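Record pair follows.
FIRST:
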Amino acid sequence: MDLRYLRYFIAVAEELSFTRAAQVVHTAQPSLSQQIRKLEDEILQTPLFRRDKHHVELTEAGQAFLPEAKSILAAVERAISLARYAALSASGRLVIGFMPGTEGAILVKVLPALHKLRPETHVLLRDLNSPDQILALRNKEIDVGFLRGPSEGPDLCWELVLVDPVIAAIPAKHPLAKLERIPIPMLSELPLIGVPRDAAAIIRGLGDRIVAQSGVSFQPGPETDGITSTLAAVGAGLGFCFLPGYAERIKPPDVEVRRLEMDNPPEIELYVAYRRDDSHPGLQAFLALVRQLVCAPQTSHGSQGTSAERGSRGRPKGAAHRIR
């Protein structure tokens, strides 16, 4: 069966309109209708839709066929992704996921050394948030990622790379920018800019943690979808935000960052994660350089005891106050 039939059917089933579905799949509406008829009459030999001039709905057969059609397409797309990944791995390409800002602390140290050690390895960098990196690792779309964690699951290994202090990003023209450290009560003068919980749960939880620890509440500000847009909102004077210390490397000129004046200020951990069963030829060399050039003393993580694989190296001081 031509996969176009499945794509066309899914589009009509989701839109319940041949006109809108034709726009989704970028084809003419008469052609789409003809292909659906062919799928029904010649291939499945049963109607998938009930339709008239003003209404389209799935038949019982269509309702049963829809989840299977989606599953088939997803399996094909995954097979394509795995084949491309295998080809890239064989050619020596290493795909690295990272969050904006982390590259300044890690990649500028590691990539030159990797090129010197393995000049045949071609590096591809992908800017992804933590949840997307976990998904990309499991889908074999990246080989290694720098992200917040660790996450549950026996398929991934996690190693602590950096521990960053939590800082406050404030508008450069605000009077608080004159202070070296900012007392938490003074930050209540500004709205707290938020980030989506599903994209940056740890960063979003900073406000809750600091409220609980200090007893100070913050007025809610606008919500952004990443560190770049968050810093832009701060620079525009829309409020302040809590961020990892590495944000200082990428802040725009209209933003200042300051340490927090509080007892036991929280810290944020950054991990390197990779698949436990990955045999990529350049991955182990890359990880060895990360451990040598970047990592603080650490313990590896994994649901089945990855610390035993590499040995316990101890924990940095202040671990009790880190946020995961």
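SECOND:
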Amino acid sequence: MSQADRVSIRSCRSHDDLKLCVELQRRVWNFDDEDLVPAAMFVVAQHTGGHAYLAFDGDRPAGFTLAYSAEHRGRRVWHSHMAGVLPEDQNRGIGRLLKLYQRDEALRLGIPAIEWTFDPLELRNAHFNIAKLGAIVRTCIPDCYGPTTSPLHGGLPTDRLLAEWHVASDRVKDILAGRTRAAAPDAIEFAVPGAIREYRHSSDPRAREIQAAMRDRFTELFARGYAITHFRRETACGVYVLERYED
């Protein structure tokens, strides 16, 4: 049996399941208690049109997702507030399985889109969200969550991009099927050094400078009707690609 075959995903069924999600947060992000989403908020999600799912490797919990029912641009969506996989289980495809499970459930229930925020300095996440899942981005939220206790954030403002995953769109179907979509000839690119994580974790001032430049440029382009539609990995950097976008 392959590693992927051992992984199963299901809805949280009990308060013990929800306590597992709280403990997973602590282990994934090294949060202090003040930044943990408590089990009660998972209950709220489940009773107001959202959900909490757990991923298991055999009988061992390996990851989770938490989403709330929300409205954006005049339509009901799921806002996926958290999706985490234990460090020792990353790079095994568990995060992808969690997102695909979310998508299957959204399609079954008629939810047109799933949204979530992500850190634009985390280039691996950007590649996963945009290049592998087919999400687009047209919103930047400066310092979205304020200061946090996670060492992963390096003391920087918690700037976030809002991923929009239009689950039934041809774009998403093509990308999930491995069909390449070319960017427009007049697309605009923004490159981020591959060393950005090292800069942040070593308190290198370049991290803050890159973050500020990205925030300003993306905010400007989003206001002009552009969206991030592609992400490309190169040897020394990650490249965000923006095109004019309409629903």
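COMMENT: The two ends are 42 Å apart (CA to CA).
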